[in-house]
Amino acid sequence: MIYHIPWIYMPVRSVLAVWHQLTKTEIPELSKGSVVMRERRRVEETIRAMRRAGAGRLQVISDFDMTLSRFAHNGRRVPTTHNILDNRLLINEECTKKMKELLNTYYPIEIDASRSAKEKLPFMVEWWTKVHELLIEQRIRKDMLAQAVKESRTMLRDGYKVFFDGLHESQVPLLIFSAGVGDVLEEVIRQNGVFHSNVHVISNYMDFDHAGVLRAFKGQLIHTFNKREGAVTQAAGLAQLHSRPNVLLLGDSLGDLTMADGVSDPHHVLTVGFLNDQVEERKELYMNAFDIVLVRDETMDVPNAILRNITSSGRLEVKA
């Protein structure tokens, strides 16, 4: 019996075209207007490799403030975990004034495209240290944190539930690495109903006395530009991550790119950067640093689409 295999007689160029159709990664969300990529082909190759390895080899590492949470809503900034503490239940008006002065002083330095991370480092330490000292002076009560979160305008990005629930259902660990306040962060995701068992948080945690009053912050200070040190020392202690060499990393700062440095023998790392502010000044920097850059995109559409592709057991859609 003779079998005819038509594609054997095709020109080499046609064969390559068919092969590309069969193997390319079809993720329509990567064509959104908010998406920019320096090397789309490499992004698609990385996603295909992660898909072949499967969900069992994947972990997700993410920043929280302005990454999992929104940057703005209806033209107004959404509060970070530190800003949520700006509530009369917790701090007085003078403390609010001083915190805003610190924000106005140090935030422009944090996002200054003309300064290196090394140059910014001492300023970030000053900022976080001064804010934490102010908060300690306020003798914040632990039992009031949940109410402060409830009264705040904090919002997670659109599609957050699909993101958190999907990772939980696929048994993919989510490591949230935040320079914010861990106690507040946990309360935000708890009140949004997505604090699942696969979620691990590394952040700045409050130390309360026996009466539930803030007296200090625990452990090493975590700020925007020292996440590598924390990643190496703390993330390495999570045994369930050791067999997961593929990483989807989400962040909104160039300092977030070091969050995967604690991964033992990484195979494939795909980085997604949310560019929320000073777009024109920082776009080139972000495109050179992140695999995928999301410009003023307040949704989880792209991360969700990538995860859906990687964790799906079905065949990739092939478009004619």
Q: Could you give the topology of this structure?
A:
Blueprint: H1 12-23, E1 35-36, H2 40-53, E2 58-62, E3 72-73, E4 76-77, H3 81-84, H4 93-110, H5 117-137, H6 145-151, H7 160-169, E5 174-181, H8 182-191, E6 199-204, E7 206-208, E8 214-217, H9 227-234, E9 246-251, E10 268-275, H10 279-289, E11 292-295, H11 301-311
Parallel strand pairs: 2-5, 2-9, 5-6, 9-10, 10-11
Antiparallel strand pairs: 1-11, 3-4, 7-8
- Would you identify the regions where 5 or more consecutive residues have pLDDT less than 50? 17-23, 314-320
Overall number of strands:
11
* Span between termini: 31 Å
- Globular, elongated, flat, extended or rod-shaped: what is the shape? globular
H and E string: HEHEEEHHHHHEHEEEHEEHEH
> Order of strands side by side in the largest beta sheet?
1-11-10-9-2-5-6
- Indicate the percent of residues in helices: 25-40%
Helix count from the secondary structure assignment = 11
Q: Can you summarize the main beta sheet?
A: 7 strands, mixed
Structural class: alpha/beta
Please report which band the strand proportion falls in: under 5%, 5-15%, 15-25%, 25-35%, 35-45% or over 45%.
15-25%
Radius of gyration: 22 Å
Mean pLDDT: 89
